[in-house]
Amino acid sequence: MNIHEYQGKEIFTDFGLPVPGGTAVQSVDDAVASAQEYGLPVMVKAQVLIGGRGKAGGVKFCETIEDVKKNATNILGMDIKGHTVRTVLVTPAVDIDSEFYIGMLIDRNTKRVMLMASAEGGVEIEQVAKDTPELIFKQIIDPRFGLLDHEAMDMGMRLCPDDIKRARQLAAAMQKLYVAFINSDASLTEINPWIFTTEGVGHAIDAKVSLDDNAMFRHPGYEALRDLEAEDPSERAAREAGLSFVKLSGNVGCLVNGAGLAMATMDLVKYYGGQPANFLDIGGSSNPEKVVNALNIILADKEVKAILFNIFGGITRCDDVANGIIAATESMDIDVPIVVRLIGTNEEEGRALLAKTNLVSADTMDDVVKKAIELAG
Amino acid sequence: MAIFVDDSTKVVVQGITGRDGGFHSAEMLAYGTKIVAGVTPGRGGQKFQDQVPVYDTVKEAVSEHGANTSVIFVPPFGASGAIYEAADAGCKLIVCITEGVPTVDMVKVMPYLEERGVRLIGPNCPGLLAPGIAKLGILPTSIVKEGPVGLVSRSGTLTYEVVYQLSAAGLGQTTCLGIGGDPIIGTTFMDAIIAFNEDPKTEAFVMIGEIGGDAEEQAAEYIKANVKKPVVSFIAGQTAPPGKKMGHAGAIVSGGTGTAAEKKKALEAAGIPVAERPMDIVPRLQEIWKK
Questions:
Q1: Which tens digits make up the pLDDT trace of A148-197?
Q2: Which are the contacts of A165, defined by CB distance < 8 A and separation ≥ 6?
Q3: In CATH, what class is B11-121?
Q4: Global pTM value
Q5: A38, A80 in Cβ contact below 8 A?
Q6: What's the pLDDT score for residue A284?
Q7: Which residues does chain B have within 8 Å of residue A345's beta carbon, measured at their own beta carbons?
Q8: Which CATH number is A98-225 given?
Q9: Does residue A90 or residue A284 have the better pLDDT?
Q10: Are B76 and A215 spatial neighbours (Cβ–Cβ below 8 Å)?
């Protein structure tokens, strides 16, 4: 789950990272009130769950109250790469002497948390990684000891070789960021940029945090951080129904058991010249209620002109799945054609059940995809 | 022969009295897997299906019955705890089926396993099925067949689809292995490929990858330099939009990397055919495998 900058900064504050104050507001009046409270100049920053806010004009420096009014008016409601800005963060502007990048992420290769840091702060780190990878320093962290003092200090000195005071501040910030990462069950924490003022005071002036969905049971408070308005309504409904779903823009709805098979089915729709409407993993259950939920979510998309089921019955039995599909479709008013492919355990029984309905049956994965594309027109 | 298991594999199932653990333990037993004990804290002294003794701890299962392998069906919040327990008790192979284990838990458990020389498969995986030898996990036995092909995959049902096609074409398997779709997993593609390459019974193998990470790229490099056996690959997720998690926590294209196109390119550059569709995997394998 990705969270907004202002929410990430709240987590940073909880773990002792220095963050300039700020208030998240949803109206121009509140933005002005916050600016008056902090004193000018301030920054007005769009809160959207996508990068490139600055380039899109969603981050503005304001010297006067007029600036705050004008910029807050422009930014609230702005569309940034398909994300509507509903909240802006008003935060005191700080003078910037130097900028750094500090990030932590899960490194699949070493199976550890990796610290990445660079003196090339304030720019897109992916670009730095591509163009000048030698400017990014890395440290693998042993979870038994955390980020050790000498490791953090070594990194601090690399970033600020001529200023021991700043190097120490950076080292302390990195250690706090690691504690924040582990204790909040993050999958990514980034400060870009970390800045020093001309007086040498360090601040995290941006925060990018992703939290591990699998660890939410340990952090009941974090559920409130989810931006329900930013979520696609169908993806939200799917999440609430316990289904793994991603909305796409095509017209062939896909219901598949298993994530890998679901991806391969989408790819096959594309291969045969169709466009998948979604990714949906219905899981191992043949529960009719789950099938009904899944169908409702797919049918809410009016672009969908045909629906395919691709079910590999391993442990799940095909006749159970067929009964689930029949019970679900009978209880609903469905006006698009449905093609079903069942294979694996008890496939004969499953197909026999489907033969009594007006659902179209298919034998292979190729078959079900081709038929669905044809029916979608 | 198979990879990672043999006739000496003695299994303890952690979570044997649970709904999923019980169901799949029955399936494993029916396939002839030597399940010597089960563990559910508080259920010690019971018997599973009137034949498998249940203990409160893995330690007892190991000391009483010489269990050397654990299969874990424990809910996510207790899964890493179960892994520590199995490793501490002396199990050298641990298969964790549980889906939804927090990533930080896996980060923490890894050094513990590495120090003890324990192999972990998973989490969030279907496990391993060595036809004729043992089943450790949830792969359906009806579709497998003994034979010379190895199969390693990040997926579950897509694996079944490919196994089904292999068996239908008369190509049996030495081992079918699902390594799991999470960002942090114990046994990687590379580990499986090295094992298949060294296994004398495995004459050829299939690698089923998906978007996210660069495990396929690393495997490609290794295969190019070290593997003489025929290898065919498939990559799921060509149509996945960037930044979206496709079911598996690890299946995500981030910052422009981890795409299916990149993986395909790396594999093809290493001389490994990449099937366009799942149904092309068997023909592509037969094409390069001149028996």
A1: 999 999 999 999 999 999 999 999 999 999 999 999 999 999 999 999 99
A2: A200
A3: alpha beta
A4: 0.94
A5: no
A6: 67
A7: 140, 142
A8: 3.30.470.20
A9: A90
A10: no
| Inter-chain CB pairs, A–B, below 8 Å | 171
pLDDT digits (tens, 9 = 90+) for B123-172: 999 999 999 999 999 999 989 999 999 999 998 889 999 999 999 999 99
Classify domain B139-288 at the CATH topology level.
Rossmann fold (3.40.50)
Assess whether pLDDT exceeds 60 at residue B291. no
Examine the predicted complex and report whether its ipTM is higher than 0.90: yes
**CB contact at 8 A, A119 and A135:** yes
Tell me where in chain A the CATH 3.30.1490.20 domain(s) lie: 21-92
Best of B114, B239, B245, B279 to mutate (most A CBs within 10 Å, chain A): B239
Residues of chain A in contact with residue B23, where contact means CB-CB under 8 angstroms, are 315
pLDDT at B105 > cutoff 90: yes
**Topology classification of domain A232-376:** Rossmann fold (3.40.50)
**CATH for A21-92, among 1.10.630.10, 3.40.250.10, 3.30.1490.20, 3.40.50.300?**
3.30.1490.20
* Residues of each domain in chain B carrying CATH 3.40.50.261: 139-288
